[in-house]
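Objective 1b of the project was to move from sequence-level analysis to a structural picture of ligand recognition. The entry below was assembled by the postdoctoral researcher (A.K.) and checked by the PI before modelling. It contains the amino acid sequence of the target and the SMILES of the bound compound, pyridoxal-5'-phosphate.
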Amino acid sequence: MADLGSQYLRIRDAVEPLVLEVLASGRYILGEHVQRLEDEVAQACNARFAIGVSSGTDALKIALRAVGIHPGDEVITTPFTFVSTAEVIVQLGATPVFVDIDPETYNIDPHWVEAAITPRTRAILPVSLYGQSAEMRTLRQIADRYGLWLIEDAAQAIGARHHEQPIGAFAHAATLSFFPTKNIGAAGDAGMIITNDEQIAYKARSLRVHGMNGGYYYEDIGYTARLDELQAVILRVKMRCLHDWTERRRYHATLYRTLLANAPLQLPVVRPYNYHVYHQFTVRTTQRDALREYLREHGIESAVYYPLPLHLQPAYRFLGYCEGDCPHAERAAQEVLSLPIHSELTEDQIAQVAHSVLEFAQREA
Ligand SMILES: *Cc1c(COP(=O)(O)O)cnc(C)c1O
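Corresponding predicted holo structure:
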């Protein structure tokens, strides 16, 4: 599903001297490379500000804090996502309100978002899942109409576009993760907040260093959530590959679409106004578990993102959701399967995966 060793070999000559330079510099936390990376990511996302932090999860938590989410607030989000999205809401003492997804794109359905708004709602937190933007333009209209914050979890979507605009363009702030297996990944944990709002940027910069502003003067109760120079220098090299690596993923998606055109599977549905960056190539079938096992027997990895929606997870039971509350998310959890798509794969490997999928389908027929 990822081949970080091969990826590293491709960029090793560029990365190693820079890493050694950082080690010799004695400057390890925040610093020049973090600042430059922030500028480069801001430019790539056409955003005014970017704030490097220690993970995608911390980026979410700090973004929510920066817009003033407090205990007792409600934040509307999707149950079909990585756990961080809801975890940070609970950690701030707020309540995640889960609404169902669009069964074609797996992203939160704006129709249900609007229906879930109450006087306690303060923010909407959509996820641009698998590398395709959520319905950000429509969600921004809803957020503006009700005076809500819109924060985009773009952990899986760096480089994606929606109505010609980069991630974050329709949100008050967007968050990125540089977890090693993300489209751009660090050699450890790292994340970023991007925003056009000066006030949010100021708050986020302070919250990542304990709420400090100026030497040992604290305006907020903050966090230890800084980005370090070693990660930043590695990420700067990888950011230069963003376009090529994204195009490579998109090319692999095109190959799958051709090879699997007649397979009895639902292929990813891409809205015409979205540029999908294929963090995952996720197909859908009622035979999901059998297909996955067949692929495994033939030496092919695949993955299920995500096998149980968050509203049904044991840790979130206290919120009081039951089976049937988000039926599209629940069905997707039983039927989705992500095939290998990363940029290090060869055409032959993609063809092998497709061949095994087709073989499985013939066997079943
Ligand atoms: C990876 C991911 C996160 C968390 O990022 P970390 O850097 O691992 O903390 C949050 N949301 C989504 C949708 C993710 O895929």
